[in-house]
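=== Structure Prediction Worksheet ===
Name of assembly: unnamed complex
Input type: mixed (protein and possibly other molecules)
Chain count: two
Listed entries:
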Amino acid sequence: MQRGWWRRRDGSSATAAGGTLHGVIAADTLTYLDHAATTPMRPEAVEAMLPFLTERFANPSGSHRFARSVRQAVDEARDVVADVVGCKPGEVVFTGCGTESDNAAITGTQQRHGGIAVCSAVEHHAVLHAVEHGGGRVVAVDAAGRIDLDALAAALDDTVSVVSVMAVNNEVGSINPLDAVAAVVGEHAPRALLHTDAIQAACWLDLRDVTPHVQLMALSAHKFGGPKGVGALIVRQGTSIEPLLQGGGQERDRRSGTHNVAGIVAMAEALRLTDLERRDDVVRIAALRDRLVDSLIDQLDDVIETVPRNAKIAGSAHVCIADIESEALLYLLDEAGVCASAASACASGAMEPSHVLAAMGIDKRFAVGALRMSLGRTTTGADVDRATAVLVDSVRRLRR
Amino acid sequence: MKVMVAMSGGVDSSVAAALLVEQGHDVVGVTMRLWGGESDTGCCSVSDVDDARRVAQQLGIDHLVFNFSDDFDTHVVAPYVQAHTAGLTPNPCIECNRHVKFARLSERATLLGFDAVATGHHARVTPAADGSHVELERGLDRAKDQSYVVHMIDQAELARTMFPVGDMTKTDVRAHAARLGLRTATKPDSQDVCFITSTGGRTAFLGTRIPFRSASVVDTAGAVVGSVPAVEMVTLGQRRGIGLPGGGPKRFVVDIDVEAAVVTVGDEADLLTPGHTVREMTWVGGSHRLADFEHVLVQCSAHGTPQRATVTVVADGTGGSRSVEVRWLDRQRRIAPGQSVVLYDPTDRFVLGGGIAAAPLTD
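=== Predicted Assembly ===
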């Protein structure tokens, strides 16, 4: 039933006879290590969006002064995003989420230019399923989860219209060398567009280093302290793709639909602060991550760090633990108030075996005990130490 | 007690969870994801999982989904397909209970610190009068009794198994769900194997997995009287769908030779047998209990009428009591090989054990 760390904010208790109860759990009672799933909103971003949920409610596409003042907020947000991404404001297209951005990039390219898509085997399903749906090709990765450049070269030819390689992997945190990827694409499929899913990158990498290599880039606000339900697709100048949505022609005919003004404004504010604080955050969080993984490996046998630290982002603490099952481990962690994950979940909520670990060739004995802990801006030393203690205890219990 | 309740998204397991909460147990609901393919309720039965989760939310208990689809493939689906290839008539729900619900789920529950596993089956777990063992008893609602499909649960497992709705009629279960306002109160009972769709049936499922072979249909004298498109789909005792013209005397499938692809039809008398060998027996309180009874009652399908028989353990080289001979008091139709055969005490209340039908006996 209710566990100790649950706090119902209204103080109610569960009764079978009652109506629907909303079990509200206070985040400060948890050890949250699932920042790759979503990370808390920055208070400044919350603050920034509130006026647009209340008094500044106008539709920015309107023609009156009220609308124009809101339009200005959207324009300013676009400038901020462009600055952090290292592109022109006109290259920023606001979307409804990261998945939409990825789909628009791949499907939109194929609809405009024909041809097929190519992606790495460890892409997020927002890319992988879109590529497979369009009859595309999937390219192998190395043991660290990075695209195999020789295999990529072999998969490219004149029929390829778009190549999608993620900047940072969402499960294991590996960083792809997009400069090298761009060179391979330029040589073997010079007419193909290069798209990167940079959804997990914004907190950890300076996007200005990535942007020059690609024609398309997907971002999602809630991964860097913005709200859920808003994203962006960067469409570099000279690149044209077919819009997914037909309608009022917002975003210069590239994404119809009334602007999510509050979301867009908050996304920009979150991205601005993320960029401002990135350098310090990366150093601090990498140290916490190292402490977490080192102490696990010290205290438990048969734990492997899935990707070497020099090949991945600072916030990723993905480990594979032999002789236990992720689902059982996650239950014990959850019971102790530690939030982590394994792979992606299907529509039923069941954990699916990880396509990422399979592509990396991780030994099944270790892969079934995959654990994705992901750190973020709000992670503290106390979180890491508590998670370590709970994890060590839980793994020993499961191995008994 | 800390109880893990398996919630399928149906009314029985919903009420089972509710009763456990009312009894003051520390309850966590679990829905097992077993089948990833097509089903009547959509991919991996998402709508059933939704129902289970919403009921759990209403009851104020945690709800988890465990992915046991690998185990389900290995222990239920693959053997089901294999059995059909061999001309057997398997019961996948029983194999699921044997290998998944009362094995895999139960092991995990123990590992995670649970004291018991509960399900919504209509059956009862009761201590034997002399305290020597735990009985597996038919559910109170005889028409809904499911002791047949859970007959394989052993003593250690029974001691930590709970069937909260076993003491209720189905009408009372639905009434209780309605009183609590559970969304599953009027949900229809599931009837069929979860991975077989009502539109495609067994044929569609097996047709994509094994190559069907046509077979000639002959009478008991060996004369060809027709043909069937798939010998793998024919079941002993079957009357319809064997390509024979209507009218005339009732004719049954009385023999299936998968290898030679020949199906023999005959009249009911050709189906009757004095008994059967039953293999892979499991026992609720030990095989020695057979000695307590002159005859026992034997049930050969989920809702079949139990028939009187004498049962004796036969040596099968395993040194245990894994094989028995069931000898009917009155001759019965042959059991399709692969079907589960469950023994009950003469009062028709308690499961003694059960196994898989093998060869018929001769006089």
